């Protein structure tokens, strides 16, 4: 899977790859220190692992609140409850929804004292969710998310992306699980065809495809022609893909696979992407591959259904979908927000725990991945649905959308499932695979995290 990034020898000039919500009037009563410290909190340089200071997303007043909630959460304060973050964060979100500013103030004071981006899992979750709740309180979610993404894009390079992607895939199956499952389904669906076209809508920088090219080179007497169209929806991806494109073409030549590689840059809503402009030819057997892409389409209106309907009109042989398993489209206001908040926390606890057990404590790659999760949490907690690009849905809901769009599921065969199980044995104990009528699931210690599925026109 990492063959593409490791092809250093193919390019000698390179040395390496790289709640209802509170009313506007109640928000205006928030203390000035929130705004004063937040510009510091958003500075990525202050997050560096070498920093000697710890900045907080909330600057408490000079004296503590008159009423103390520490007795209510005494087990957490004393260290007896190691998994305190879910309870205190939920109570903070609840106080925000109910407009209980006194209790909100007290809970934020407590979270400020207990959270850290460099601590254990609960301290990190407390840190990033507190940042997101602060953004919601101050109606600064969209601006903050945009600034955080922009800062990340500016410091992104091919070398840094290479290092991050390779390390993540080396120690954790979060993305490789979907790659193996999707490649197996695509190979089976396109078996016997001479001209293949894969439209790849994903953000894993083509690390999925070297193994597919190798399989094509060894499986067929006459290797079919492969056309790969990669849709990139981020500015950081644009920089990285310039290098990836060259290496993909060289690797295909090395494998002896007739190959054409195209990159389509599309900023904005994927539902507005005109797939008909990709020049799909009638004699091509078409596959559409979506790895962590469909959840970036906003949930408002029928945009997600629209892009699925567009897929159906292209009459592909196979559509593969990989998404994180979580119901994040519950609601943004009042009790529905609180229900969604619990769902967000559940997924990110699984993610942070998996990172914690997979990476060394001082890993810079882990810190980068955690910061990326922090940006997603800001999006989910503090950005309204029309601006959100992070709202996952469950396998059941995606399945209903696919059925409604004119598709039926394709079961993964035993060979593919065996390949996935073999993959998971490479990683730390705790990962497992399960299956149902909608597809297969990657689970961490019994908690479903990622869903992979395959579909064909009905």
Helicity, as a percent range: 40-55%
Structural class: alpha/beta
- How many whole angstroms does the radius of gyration measure? 23 Å
Largest sheet: number of strands, sense, barrel closure:
9 strands, mixed
Uncertain ranges: 1-63
Shape: globular
Query: What are the secondary-structure elements, in order, as H or E?
Result: HHHHHHHHHEHEHEEHEHHHEHEEE
What's the average pLDDT? Answer: 83
What's the number of extended β-strand segments?
Answer: 9
Describe the structure.
There is one protein chain. The protein has 458 residues and is of the alpha/beta class. The chain is built from 16 helices and nine strands. Strands 1, 2, 3, 4, 5, 6, 7, 8 and 9 form a nine-stranded mixed β-sheet that branches. Helix 12 links the parallel strand 4 and strand 5. Helix 4 packs antiparallel against helix 13, helix 6 packs antiparallel against helix 13 and helix 7 runs antiparallel to helix 14. The longest helix has 25 residues. The chain is globular and about 75 Å long. The N terminus is likely disordered.
